[in-house]
Specification:
mainly beta, 317 residues, globular, four-stranded antiparallel sheet, 1 helix, Methylamine Dehydrogenase, Chain H, 28 strands
Length: 317
Amino acid sequence: MTPLVRSMLGTAAALLLAAGTASAAPFAYVPNEKSGTISIIDTQSDSVVATVATGGKPRGMAVGADGAMLYVSDSGSNALLVVDLGKRAVVDRIALHESPEGVGISPDGRWIVVASEISNSVAFVSSATRTLAFSVPTRGKNPEHADFSPDGKWLYVSAEEADTVDVIDVEQRAQVNAVTVGRRPRGIGFTPDGRRAYVAAEIAGTVYAIDTASQQVIARIASGNYSNGVTIHPDGKTVYVSNGKDGTVSVIDTADNKLGATIPVGKRPWNMAITPDGAKLYVANGRSGSVSVIDTASRQVIREISVGELPWGVVIR
């Protein structure tokens, strides 16, 4: 074999490897609160391909900016677990305030934030040093979710014992506003352009569209009973809301902020995630111990995947 042929073959192999890597479907990660495990789902086959033992009560999760690490709140040990996704094992534990829940990550990957229920605060953990850098108190009691705006300037925080969404200025490291919504706000989702945030209020059974420039509610959309998780399609045209008591997912059109469809799923649907291409939505069903896979084009469930007990949500990288 001549050097030229070897070079051509090597180039062809590299191109095939790159093409395979680029086309590989992402994984979905599901924290099972009662089982103390994380189920890893291959979104191409829609099957569980691995289970990571964490112990405790894993809840909120976020994937690091480089996709190498998964950050998981554990209310059992009051810690943020660092899971190496290559090794599929817990490699570090970072002490937090009592009863950590929702986890978010800044767009630049610098900060991992964790809402802590008992301390009524949000902890900012440095991804570089894996240490708790500072905490910001919230006015709302029992904070659950903490989500960054796409530009990273704002952090919106929902609290179970409140009727407002707390707005934290990330640069100032302080809460600067509170937007009134319905009772018990839960899931939060920003449109890709950052112009709106959608917040589900569980007791109110309503989704609130917030104009992020004015930080005011511009629309109220009646959804189902116990509105909870919020996920927005990558194209920004559709909002998905899980309804815990109904066992459904509501579909909202952002063009007119009206309800477009209702999709039956498992029992007590909670938090959700969508694939980067927007083709499939994954819904954690807490009381079914399963994840419903929704085809977003047909708006129908195409697969039910068994996971652990009390799945809290889904994260897709």
